[in-house]
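[step 3/7] fold_predict: job queued, chain A
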Amino acid sequence: MNKSLIPMGLAAAAMLSSCSTNEIEEMIIEKPTVEVKDGMLTPEVLEAFGRIREIAPSPDGKTIAFTLAYESIEENKSNAEIYTMNPDGSDMQRLTKTASSESGICWFGGDNPRIAFITKDSETEKPQVFSMAPNGSELQRITALENGVECFKISPDETHIIVASPIKPWEKDSTLFNGLEKTTGRLVNDLMYKHWDEWVEEIPHPFLGEFNGKSADNFIDLMAGEPFECPMRPFGGAESFEFTPDGKQLVYVSRKKAGMDYAFSTDSNLYLYDIANKTTTNLTSDNPGYDTDPKFSPDGSRLAWLSMATPKYESDKKRLMVMDMKSGQKRDLTDNWQYWPEEIAWAPDGKSIYFAGYYEGTEPVFKMDVTTCKIDTIAQGMWDYHSVIPMADGKIYAMRHNMLQPDDVVAIVGSEKVTEITNINKDILDQLAEVKVEKHYVTTTDGKQMLAWIILPSNFDPNKKYPGILYCQGGPQQAVSQFWSYRWNFRIMGANGYVVIAPCRRGTPGFGYEWNHQISGDYMGQNMQDYLAATDYMAALPYVDKDHLGAIGASYGGFSVYKLAGIHEGRFAALIAHAGIFNLEAQYLETEEMFFADYDLGGPYWDLNNAVAQRTYAGSPHKFVDKWTAPILITVGELDYRILASQGMMAFNAAKMHGLEAEMLVFPDENHWVVKPQNAILWQRVFFNFLDKYLKNQSQPASQAGEKTAGE
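[step 4/7] structure written:
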């Protein structure tokens, strides 16, 4: 980026950090310089990719704002800055240059447009909402809340702003803690005392403020006195808020439960707040499952949202619901469709709704007629689309990625006319050796056809033999689509000389409700047979070395690896499990979102009359260690409260005590994921070092690996 293009207004923006000017200059992360040798995608090259995080076209469609993040291996962090460009991708300009990431970009101001966003403020030392002119000048701070801002939305009439700001839901007992300012003790008296990767000591609340176009004040807490979250942790954001087009009302999403009730429930609701009357109405009290992502039609007469009908089932079919705001009548527009949306957006004319959704191993863009419920495919192919934004001129903006390249911005005009607007990582991608992705179909043990992606190595030669990897997906109801991952990256696996098979086994969405739901209560059953069928299919390919196969996976994928370790019957020569469930009985008690384990495992292990639960726990991987034969690598994060690091540590200890070759990589500062740049690079290095040791050692086939290591 030519720094001469950066507007002078950025001198003020640079001071948003609480650090000194010299410290800022040292900490600002620029696009890294990386050397690609012999077309090889290394962990260092992977970390050098630019990452588009969000897009926001201006209302007139003449400018697209977006955030672009780069990582610094040396600083061990990433940083996102705001850019703008023309609708065709030309005249790309960087607007911010700060040491802290910018996020939540949106446009306001009508004929005098401005860009609002969140970044760290030097005065309050908290994230606040700021605004600037479209060229990056005229910086103004909009909020100055004591606890900062996590996300926000500005009302369509620009008279109000809704923000999420953290509060303390309860106070410590003054008698017990009196004079003990340095104690680290936490007194716990209910469930949900920790969530995802943090101890629950504060929760977000919705604060509505008056906005004059420059600043906001007179904030009121819409849930004052309620110890509930809004947005919902751990991933809720600004999509939890929606103003009516006239700005007189707003809808917010909350799961108004606490403690044990919160831990065992998915019952979130949409609450309509009348700004003038200060009254709140629950719009979805009749539904016991998740209700999320509210979106008003352009005229405000209808409200659309995503809804799940089944209590405790977080991976239930997402129904596209629409309610007439005058009559209160509700309709499920997807009642006769076996698939479901992942995000929704009204067409400007209010006659249809656009959405992305998983379908047959990819994530196309669809358009649904609100009256007839007719669905048309707008964009498809071997891509995953998301962040769909329809414009008044008929153009649709979105982001898309696949297994071989990360997100870029595209424009969709008409039916399936897709134009790529950005190519952020072209300089790196052009230097990489080619890796191919193929679609295959595997016959399962119950006679069904299962889609499986095959990733072929760089410089693939069909006359050679390559080691193979079975990829086990997490979730468990998570799509094996054309996803791009910075950890489970198929391109880097291909670059390292491996054939990968990624099957869409039972439990993955995109193949209808029955296929998706089958896995619940049957963790040990058909989906494990699907994995073995995929492994045998891969082993039979003429270019795969059947004696040197591995299985890898994270979360439920890590559980799958542990389970396969006891039933693979010599198929695998190496196994890698990250953040996997090893002991199901312990998992039922250790995890924080209890509803998930309660539904998917079938209930508590002490319910001896529950046949589903008893079958589940009887098949727990920890009970089959005596059948483990293959060397195993286990990786965990100690901030992971979804699947505790102790699960992996138990598995490692069991493997070592059983006499197997085993390694364990522990990250004290990571959660369920591995995201810090240096940790991510170490993870990749350990990953391939382990696979190469056991899968590229041609003297030790899988059938002998277990016999050798188990006897040592």
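[step 5/7] annotate
Confidence is low (pLDDT under 50) at residues 1-26, 699-712.
The first helix runs from residue 10 to 13.
exit 0
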